[in-house]
Amino acid sequence: MVLFAAAAGVALVFQARNASMQEARQLAFGVAQAFAHAPGTLEAMKSDSPRALMQPRAEEAREESGVDYVVAFDPNGFRWTHPDPALIGKHIFALREGAAADRPFTQTFEGSLGLSVDSTVPVYDTGGKTILGFVAAGITVDSVDEVVQGQLPQLLGFAGGALVVSAGGTALVSRRLRRQTHGLDPSEMTRMYEHHDAVLHAVREGVLIIGGDGRLLLANDEARRLLTLPPDAEERRVTDLGLEAGTARLLGSGRVATDEVHLAGDRLLAFNMRPVGPDGGPAGSVVTLRDTTELRALAGRAEVARERLRLLYDAGVRIGTTLEVTSTAQELTEVSVPRFADAATVDLLDPVLRGEEPAGPGSEMRRAAVFGVEGARTLHHVGELIRFVPTSPTAVGVERGHAVLEADLAASGDAQDPDRARRVLDHGFHSLITVPLQARGVVLGMASFWRSEAPPFEEEDLAFAEELVARAAVAIDNARRYTREHALAETLQRSLLPGSLPDHSAVEVAHRYLPALDGVGGDWFDVIPLPGARVALVVGDVVGHGLHAAATMGQLRAAVHTFSALDLSPDELLGHLDELVARIDGEESAERDDKGVTGATCLYAVYDPSSGQCSLARSGHPEPALVHPDGTVEFLRVPGSPPLGLGGGEPFETAEFTLPEGSRLVLYTDGLIEDRESGIDIGLEALRDALARPGRTPEETCRDVFGTLLPAHPGDDIALLVARTHRLDPSQVAEWNVPGDPAVVAGIRADVTRRLGAWGLDEMAFTTELVISELVTNAIRYGTEPIRLRVLHDRDSLICEVTDGSSTSPHLRRAASTDEGGRGLFLVAQFSQRWGTRYMARGKVIWTEQSLHGRAPEADGATADTLLDQWDEAWST
C-alpha cells in the first residue's frame, strides 16, 4: 500500500506538471494570436516606427495575460519589442528547428529568459500573401514549476490520506478473514458437515475426488452404485478398481472433460471432470457422473420423431407443386429418398394416368416414377406395365387397404418373379414397405419404399409411410382431376373451334391456336361465307379458362353464325351479341349467386371482294393489323367499345376501309401481345416487326408471328387469323339500272343471257333467266325505285342481286289450287342453291346463288308442275 501511495503521488506530480505545461502552451498561443490580430498591430508593423508603437502595447499585454514575454520581430529576426529594453533591436535566435515560418507554432526552447514554452504567430499583409512580421509569446519553465510546487502539499496530503485509509481497510479485512478461517463456531461446522453428508449420501449424481497420483480420495454413494465400486475403493488407484479401460484412462488423465460418455456395464455414463490444486497439496481432479442410458434412448426417439415431422412438412411443401400426375408421383419419390428410404417407386393404374376415374383396384399398374439407388431403376422402367400376382406385397396391400411390411426380402422371396427377386437381392435391397395410394376411398396405385443401406424397416415405420403416402395421394388425385378437366375442356374447345376453314374466293386464310399452360380458355376464330361473294372474319376471347369459358365460347360462336345468316352489319351483330352475353351472364349469376361471366371480346369484319371494302366493329378487342403488299404495317383505327356484356347497352360503331388487293388482314387475341413483364405497346411493336415482310403467304405469316412472339410459357390462349384479300375482276360483275316498267324485263333478260355467254355459262342461261325474270318483275310490281340488277361471276357460283328502295320482305305462302300466280318464289328457291334478303340503310337486296359445279336443272315443265303441286306457295309483301 505504501508503494501504491508513493506511485500515485509521483503520478499526480507528473500529471500536475503536464497539465501546467499544457495550460502554458495554450496561454502562450492564445496571447500570441490575440496580439498578432489585435487592431493596430498590422498598421504598427507597416509604420515607420514599429518599436515605439508596439513596445507599450506588448508590455501591457504581457502584464494583463500573465505570460513572461511578448516579443514582436520583423521577418529578418530583429526585435521590435521585449521585456528587456536592452534587447530591442537585437537579432533573435535562428528560427526554431522543425518549425515552419509561414504558420503558427508552439515549442519549448532556450531563449533569452531561459527555457520557455514559446508560441510564434506570423502576421500577414491584408492580401494574405506577404509576412510583415512575427509575434511570440512565452512562459518560462521556471514559472510552470513554481505553480506545480505550490500544488505539491495538496497532492502529497491526498496521497498520504489514501495510504492511511487503505492501510486501515486492509487491516480490518485481514482480521475478518482470520476470524472466518480459524474461528468457526459449532453451528457453522455442523452446517459444513451436513453439506458434506448430503454430497456423499443424498445427491443423485456421482461425485469422485481423485488425487494427483491417480488415487481415489472420495466417492459418494451414487458414484459407487453407478461404477460398482468395491467398499475399500478409497486410497486405491483408479486403474485397480476394475473399471472399463476407457473410463479408467479418463479418471487417471487429470484432463478436462465435459459430458463425455463412457460405457460402464450396461449403462451409458456422462462424465464431467475438472482439475483442482488445493493449497499445500498435490494437484487432483473432481469428477461428476450421471446415468444417461434412458435419456439417450428418449433423445434418439425424439430425434427420429422430429425428423419424421420435418419430412412430412417438406412433403407437404414439395409434393403437388404441379398439376401433372407423373410429376407429382416423381416428387413423392424424391422427397422420401434418402431421408426415409434408399429407393422409392410409384405405380399407378392406367385410368389415373389418363385423368380418368379408376373403376376399382386392379392387378395391372404402370410404373410412373422411380428415384434412388441405381438398382431400383433396373427392376421396372418408367412406363412399363406391371402385372401383380395375388401373393405379391402390392396385391396384398391393395386388398387390405393398408401398408404392408416385408422386413426381410431374402426370407420372404418373390412369388411374382423369382428372377426379379434375385435381382432385388443382388442390388442389396433387404427391406420393403408398400402403401396403397388412396384418395376419397379410391385406390389410385401403390407406393413402394426400399432399403439397401439403412437398417431394415420396422413396424413403427408403417404409420409414417401411410401418412406420407396419404398426403401424396391427395395431390395425385388433384392432378388426375385437373388432367381430366383439362382434357375435357380442350376436347370441348377443339370440337367447338372450326376443324377447317372454308375455301373462299375472296380471301386466302391461315390460322393458329395455342391454349394456355394452365388450361384452355375461350379464344376462338371463324371464317363465314356471306351472300354476294363476301366473307366475314371473326376473332373473339371469353375471359377465364376451363370448361365454363369453352362452353361460353361455343355459345358465342354459334350465335355469330346465326346473326351472320341474317346478314347484319358488324355493329348490329355486336349489339345482338352483347345482349346475348348480358342475358347469359344474368341467368348464370342467378343460378350461382355470384357475378357470373366477366365479359368477352370480339372483332367482326366483313370483306366485299367486288369493291375491296372492309367493314369492322370491335368490342373490347385489340385493333387488327393490315399488312400492305409492300410490307408496310398499320393498325386499323376501329372505334372501341367495352367488352360484350359490360357495355350497358351502348351502341357499337362500324369503321370502313378499302383494302388493296393482296394485302393481309391480321386478327389476333390479346394473349399474343400481352406479357406480364412488358407492356402491350412492346407487344404491338414486336407484332409489327414480325409482320413487316412483303411477299409472305398467310401460312408463312403465321409461322413468322408465332416464331417471334410466342412466349415460352403462355399464360393466356392465343388465336391468330391471317387473311390475304382478293378482288373480283370488273369483267366478272355486270350491273343494270331497271326502270319501273314490266316491259323492260325481256330486254334485261336478253342482256343477262348475252353476258352469260361471254362468261361461258350458256348452260345456266335458262335457270338464270327464270330467276332474274321473277326477281325483277316482283321488284317492279311490289318495290320502289331505284331498282338495280347485279350479276356476279364468282369462282364457284353465279350470284344475282336485285336491289330496290323498299324495306318490305318477300316470304312464302301457301297458294290455293285455283290461284293463277303465287308460285314464282318457289321456282326461285328450286333453281337456286341459296337465296335470301339483306337490308341496307335504305332499301333491301334480294339475292340468289347458283352453283357452277352442279348440273343445271332441266327445263321440264312436268317436273316443275310436280314440285308446284307439293309446294304451292307464292310471293307476298
Automatic annotation (TrEMBL):
Residue span, GAF domain: 347-486
Subcellular location: Cell membrane
Domain PPM-type phosphatase: 504-725
Main location: membrane
Topology term for the membrane: Multi-pass membrane protein
Pfam families: GAF_2, HATPase_c_2, sCache_3_2, SpoIIE
Alphabetized UniProt keyword annotations: ATP-binding, Cell membrane, Hydrolase, Kinase, Membrane, Nucleotide-binding, Phosphoprotein, Transferase, Transmembrane, Transmembrane helix, Two-component regulatory system
UniProt cross-references to PANTHER family, sorted A to Z: STAGE II SPORULATION PROTEIN E, STAGE II SPORULATION PROTEIN E-RELATED
Name of the protein in its database record: SpoIIE family protein phosphatase
Top-level taxonomy: Bacteria, Bacillati, Actinomycetota, Actinomycetes, Kitasatosporales
